[in-house]
């Protein structure tokens, strides 16, 4: 069994809780409110900036050209395709985010950045593998279910259910597999599981 699969297995209960969180259910069923999604657009745009910084650190610390290239492509996607999405979605959305939305949801960036300071490339790879695995799973299910509201919400779901996004998650899995044994499994589980817990708190913040 690969190291990435062992990690997914060890954190499967936390992943299932994340996949069952209210935000995921309401997007998938079409029940998400305009105000809640407006807050989400604000907080997710903020985390995308954090993710770009994390991938940039991974470029700097990458152990080989393949890892450098994969993380550089991720930075490009975050600062172009995803940045374009947020500009268009926030301009078209009928209501604005409530004051303090980003501050309420700081836990995700705070956790990811603290892990990066602790463990460098290995931590960055692990927390991003957790975040992107979660998004691939829930957005794939939401897209297949067909209940996500058309427009910006369905567009966001579709962006994380493409073959290209799946390839990115698979690439992160390979990067986890290649981490040296000097980074023990229990540390990877702490980073991966902690990131999923932070994702749950982050998404719950839209209901504050």
Rounded mean pLDDT is 96
CATH superfamily: Heme oxygenase-like
> What string, H for helix and E for strand, traces the elements in order?
HHHHHHHHHH
CA radius of gyration: 16 Å
* Fraction in helix: over 70%
Provide the low-confidence segments as ranges.
Answer: none
The global form is: globular
Number of strands: 0
CATH architecture field: Up-down Bundle
End-to-end distance, in Å?
41 Å
Q: How many DSSP H or I helices?
A: 10
Structural class: mainly alpha
Largest sheet: none
Number of domains: 1
**CATH third-tier fold name:** Heme Oxygenase, Chain A
Strand content: under 5%
Name of the CATH class: Mainly Alpha
Describe the structure.
The chain has 208 residues and is mostly helical. The protein has one domain: Heme Oxygenase, Chain A, CATH 1.20.910. Helices cover 80% and strands 0% of the residues.
Protein topology:
Elements: H1 3-10, H2 12-19, H3 22-29, H4 34-61, H5 65-92, H6 101-104, H7 107-145, H8 152-159, H9 163-177, H10 185-204
Provide a quick synopsis of the model.
The protein has helices spanning 3-10, 12-19, 22-29, 34-61, 65-92, 101-104, 107-145, 152-159, 163-177, 185-204.
List keywords for this structure.
Heme Oxygenase, Chain A; mainly alpha; 80% helix
């Amino acid at each position: 069994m690969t190291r990435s699969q062992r990690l997914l297995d060890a954190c499967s209960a936390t992943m299932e809780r994340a996949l069952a969180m209210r935000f995921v259910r309401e997007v998938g069923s079409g029940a998400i409110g305009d105000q809640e999604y407006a807050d989400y657009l604000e907080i997710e745009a903020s985390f995308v900036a954090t993710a770009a910084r994390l991938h940039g650190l991974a470029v700097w610390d990458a152990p080989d050209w393949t890892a450098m290239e994969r993380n550089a492509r991720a930075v490009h996607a975050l600062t172009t395709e995803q940045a374009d999405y947020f500009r268009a979605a926030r301009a078209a959305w009928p209501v604005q985010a409530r004051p303090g939305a980003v501050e309420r949801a700081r836990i995700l960036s705070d956790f990811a950045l603290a892990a990066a300071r602790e463990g460098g490339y290995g931590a960055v790879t692990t927390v991003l593998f957790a975040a992107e695995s979660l998004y691939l799973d829930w957005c794939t299910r939401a897209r297949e279910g067909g209940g996500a509201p058309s427009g910006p919400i369905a567009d966001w779901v579709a962006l994380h259910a493409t073959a290209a996004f799946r390839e990115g998650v698979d690439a992160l899995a390979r990067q986890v597999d290649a981490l040296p044994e000097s980074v023990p499994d229990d540390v990877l589980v702490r980073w991966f599981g902690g990131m999923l817990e932070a994702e749950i708190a982050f998404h719950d913040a839209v209901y504050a």
